[in-house]
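Hey everyone, long-time lurker, first post.

I ran two proteins through the pipeline my lab uses and got sequence/structure pairs for each. Pasting them in order. The first:
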Amino acid sequence: MRPAIRGLALTLWAGVSLFMMASCGEPVPVVPAVQNADLCLNDFQTCVMPVLSGQIPRRGGAVVSCMDSSCHVAGGNGGRFTLGSDVSANFEAVKSNFVNFASTHDSLILVEPTQDNVSPSAAAGPHGGGEIFPGRSDACYLAIHNWISNQVTSQSSATCGLCTQVVNTSTDCGY
């Protein structure tokens, strides 16, 4: 082998070896593909809206619904998160403003109601409704999280329709 080619081969081998040794033992980050990501509208209606409209016991004993007149309905105190009777409009509003496609647990729709139990996102302000979900294992939290995690490229995706339904928000969720 000619010296110039041999030197190039050795340099290349050394570079590859150094790269492999430097990354040895390091965790490989798993980043979900979010290009052209969408969420299932039908699953929002089937599995998320029942949570948002359900009665959930919060810390301190009060039973609340996101759609109570003082909360996230038009005229309520729910800030920029307003729910109405149009499920498609609710879907678009939640998806566009309260979902973090790259880091699902950091979605505001999950962070604010769990803010005292899970490390909050810096973007989350105080949730006026108090703590709703005791943590990430709460059935209502999981129903919303699973919906966000099931990112699809179209509404006809085979994974639409596989969401997690909560049987009874009054007994399966909250405190």
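...and the second, right after it:
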Amino acid sequence: MKSIVLIGMPGAGKSTIGKLLSDKLNLEFVDTDRLIEHEIKESIQNYLDVNGYLKLRSIEEKVILREDIENKVIATGGSAVYSEKSMNHLRKKAKIIFLNVDQNEIEKRITNFATRGITKRPGQSFSSLFVERQELYMKYFDYKVDSTHLSIDATVQLVEKIRGKLDNFQ
């Protein structure tokens, strides 16, 4: 079991850290948001604007369930945790690492909440979304990295250390 799945809020650094980690570990990098955009042939925000968050979550689940996750670093969209099927699929061949960043820091990083392609209920506040998702991230993670005050490099090194300390990473 060599795969790593990164979960966390939009703005937590999953894609950036995932790419750097995959390069260091010589594993393929997969960003599920890019897979979704390839599937829908448009940006996530455009799709959300027309079809709504529930249809997008359904496509996200389909894309994740279809993905062969062996020997990869996978950065999930922040909403992947809404699908128990998706999370169980990822968990079969990967360790799930929650990149935990506090709400204030996420709000500093995400300046385009309304247009970033974040799956949320119509009118849902960022604060409400943050609380709702934190509960789900806590449900599914194998390891939590509190990276609010860590640099990107320090976060990559910490995830690498976590992976290295596990016997056979199983």
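Reply from user beta_strand_b:
Welcome! Quick read of the second one: The helical segments are 14-25, 32-40, 44-51, 53-66, 84-93, 103-109, 126-140, 152-165. The radius of gyration is 15 Å.
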